[in-house]
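Reviewers asked in the last cycle whether our approach scales beyond single polypeptides. To address this, we selected a multi-component target totalling 1302 residues and predicted its structure end to end. The input consisted of the following lines:
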Amino acid sequence: MKIFFINIFLIFFSVFTSVFSQETQNSIFIKKQNTYWKTFLKNTEKTYNLKFFYNPDSLPDINIIVKKDSSLLVKILKYNYLPYDINISKDNLGNYFIYKNFAINSNIDNIFNNTILKDKDKVQITNSESNYLKVYKNFISKTIIIGTKKERKKNDAILLNGFVKNILTKAPIQQSQLKIIELNKSISSNSNGYYEFYLKPGNYTLSVQSLGMYDENYKINIYSKGKLNIFLKTKSIALDEVTISAIRNNNTESTKMGFEKITAKTIKHLPSIMGEPDIIKVALLLPGVQSIGELSSGFNVRGSPADQNMFYINKIPVYNPTHIFGLFSAFNSDAVSDFTFYKGNIPVEYGGSLSSVFDIGAKRGNLKYFSARGGIGITSSRLMAEGPIKKDTASYLISLRTTYSDWILRQIKNIDIKNSTVSFKDALMNFSYNINKKNTADVFIYGSHDFANLAFGLKNEYTNLGAAIKWAHTFNKKFNSELNIIKSQYSYKEENYEITYLSNKHSFELNHNELKLSFKYLLTKKNSLKFGINSKYYKLNFGDFLPLSDASIIKPIEFESEQAINNSIFLGNNWEITDKLTLDAGIRVYLYSYLGPKTVYTYEENSAFEADNITDTTRYNKNDLIKNYKNLDFRVSGKYKLFDGFSLKASYNKLNQYIFMMSNSISISSTNKWKLSDSHLKPMKGEQYSFGIFNNLFYGKIETSIEAYYKEIENQVEYKDGAEFITNQIPETNIIQGNLKASGIELMIKKKHGKLNGWVNYTFSKAKVKAFNTLTGEMNNRGIAYSANYDRPHAFNLALNYKATKRISFSINIVYSTGRPITYPTSIYYQNGIEIIGFSNRNQYRLPYYFRTDFAINIEGNLKKYKFAHSFWSISFYNLTSRKNPYSIVFRNENGKIKGYEIAILGTIIPSITYNLKLGNYDK
Amino acid sequence: MTNRHVIIILLFFIFSCETEISLDSINNEQVLVVDGSITNMPGIYTVKLSLSSNINEPLMIPYENCKIIIFNNTDFSEILTETAPGIYNTSETGIQGEIGKQYKITIETPEGKKYETEFQTMLEPIGIDTVYAEIIYKETLDYPAGLPGYKFYVDTETAPNLENYYMWNMSETYEYTGDYTLDAIYDGNTILINGLDTITKYDDLFRCWKTQNIKNIFTGKTSNLSVPKISNKPLHFVSTKTRQLSIKYSLLLTQNTINKKAYKYWKEIENQISDDNILFATQPYNVIGNVLNKKNPEELVYGYFTVSSVSKKRIFLERPAVPFHYSTCFVQTDNIFSFPPAPAPYYLTIINGEYGKLSESCFDCTTKGGIPERPNFW
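The resulting structure, written as structure tokens, was:
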């Protein structure tokens, strides 16, 4: 892609008159077609050796329509662009200017070329060259003399040869296009970057182009045989453009619904808490995603509890994706290339989470050269380094992040806080090896660790560890495979030493080992198959509840570990039946086996799972089968395109989930244990119906969508009132399996490109839980359905980024949502002379609404192409209006009177500044 | 284990703040509240019936004219008599709690609604080994160096069975005096001097004893301990912020041996009333007791009819040698007769040989709720 901003600026600044170009001598005719504009311009440039100049941000995303064969190029462009107030100019050298609101007099006798060229000796400039020079400014300083006048032999063909190389890495560049403009003679460099021309002596213009490189133009004066090595510079913004084209029209062309893909750039530019760019916080700006508040790890998607989401980083499941009890996410944004988020139709290759999949892609290391970047913030620093192990073949990437937030705690008057320590770190490593054209291998390692020692007597640490090996093999163009071997572990340890004689410790460890072999096979161009096998082995160690010291009188409580194997096979098919209709369907068949060793209790028939009702105890030995569940995931989705840029989509998902989190508190805390489905606790089953209208306006510049969903979850795990997990050896006695019903409508408007980009969305939703086991009579809230804790009927999010200049950009987030439901104290009564609070029905009341505005300024360092390092500052203001958004309400008994206090966390403006540094120049 | 999440959240008070909110908009539905017990102590046993009150106006609303019958599982039942609004008593010669027997009550309201509890067994009482107190310094925001006071602890006797459940409640008695003595009264015309003139009735109001129930409940169980004996169980804390410890203090501890269901109820009540823990990170809920409307089991009824066996122990503590932090009353020494203009009488005390003017609460201990009579156990 040939985007010369400098040139464009040059043209825009120098030319202001509005004269339309005249018809020129060499007319170009184009065949009948209907092609995406970028493709059209690119093809035309290639085929006819001409050049288009435009600012891609100012052009609409349209298809260029050519109605008849042999249409004149200028006419075609005018026909297609004039309706948008876009003009076309052309000079007689084959340069086409496509521009908005300006007109360029391409025939103007260029003032500044002449003046600059005054100094140039002996270069004869033809009229056409003079016009050419206007745009190829860097050309001027590069007149190269090949050979010597002495050896000059008139009319003989002289060999000019050399290599085309990358200026930084000195790697040869193959397939670069070299062209002698005057002769209209083109060749391309071979695999070693070698090229040769046979030319007669004289003045020529040599233009060199290569994909992903800046074009170079040389004025050469050739006398005799000579060598010319050409060095091209890497195009700094190449990656952005690739991103754009990859996701173009996804909105209306694919069957994907309830799907978002966010790139690292978006994450980097949005405002953040304490200068930590955070992918989870970005996800919270998407429609259908809610959280309890600032201090809750994870989030709630379309009315589901947080444990029905699954986080993956390069296929490694991460069971606690947060740092500091939910304040930050556990992924260093430097090492993240993008994340994909599925909340509606979850693709068949993901199994085991009912609500959403959050798939984070970590970067692969640079295969060419070493690069590093980092950031220094108020509470944490991060560093990332990458580079080749073996050039073009193998690379590494290492990223580290750590905190030093204790100094903030020291500033607090509260003794408990002052003497506390809180810290986190995370790291990831990615080794990539391109074995050959058909095989690539990756080894990826991830870890995060949190530590807190709270002065009132609690020490807590938790860790995520994961490793994944990926081997991708291409059999042929139609058939490829991927093998993944994955290991993930989440663990925590907690020591409670507040009261010496009761001091205790407990721990938890979840091991997830996974093997996944998947294949993709293209039956036809429009019909593809996905299939594979997936085997997961879970082992959960519940740790023992032990006295912390000899002084403690706590009786040790032993917990049995548990294990299960979940084998599944899956098959998916995507079939573009017609241009308009595409269907996608998939099934996954599970055989889930819950295995011993384990003690399993039998309860009286139709009575609650309570210790009192145990009638029998069965002891299973190691690997004895305790319970099998055979279940089927089924999903189908379809797209019907009514016309270009307007599609209707529908989908249905029926999914199963075999692991859930035991949590009694409103937010997720690090001491929540996970639990496998067993003979008493059935797998959760979810069904979701969704329907959507997707419309791209202004020729794809603006994407709009409306999605509606209805979701029902069976066997939803709810906790009995007052449930206590830490010392309860029999988890089923804490749980009632109820059901959850959620529905909603999500409206989204999104502008992906341009100076001003971002999105705005509104969601109306509802989520109700009913926990009432009619067989046993167990119930919460006396059997009455209640709003889920995270149910926020109205939610509005705005996230905008405005690129004021090439170096300064501004971002703003505006978040509004209905307050979350809360149970209020409604009455007072007396027991034993003590005032006791009576409560409303569960979640009958609501907190006040939530509103927050964040603002960020990103200032990039200079944009020189060659420099040792590039830096940028990001200045962020979290909660600009200092609104005290209530996280919760606490009620206290003060002198016999109940008083309610809204607790606002982060209820004030939080400014932060982060300095980011990267070796090399600016890129994405 | 209480939920520590609460305090973890405290950490984020770095950036957090609290704002008081109005609770006026809350509607309250009046709910029947049962509060009664039968123990192994001889007695009159009481069941109180009331209706829950609006949260803004905490009030015991007596529920009158109900019919309560208490039953044992063998041979006896008795109708309770309403001796005061909402207070229903057994007779002195009526039912007596006996260890090993089961008890229940039924309630019928004037509207004809019927409620009842299940039979519960009265268990063998487990004794109190010791009750003791230690001086501790409680660090708070206002007292970063620590607010001194007595923290009470209990050790139970070793129980014969492994699983035992306890609920403790306490009553305290303390001796205190006025801050100043009344030396004279100016009645508008003359100064009546104590000792010379007859204002001696105030002499009796200088020293008081106050007895009150401690508005806190503590629970414990031995089922998670290797030996069925609870040691060093922390109970109530009395600070030096009040004058409770200023002269002499006594704590009467009642240890109720209860069954597991009752323990669960009182444990939940304990969680609910213990300081900051109300309604923070865990889902708050109504603590449901053992009184049920059999016809309409969904009806919310608060309260518990407890069957327990009790052990009691009293300890005495003298004034500790620590700094006290309660405020004493203000004495005006300048222009006492002219400013501020106020009607007589003026109460006077002698400070450094001069009269100082003070209010009644400075010398009349009954204004602080006590009675000027020494209790018989003192």
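Chain B touches chain A through 78 residues (CB under 8 Å). We regard this as preliminary and will revisit it once experimental data from Aim 1 are available.
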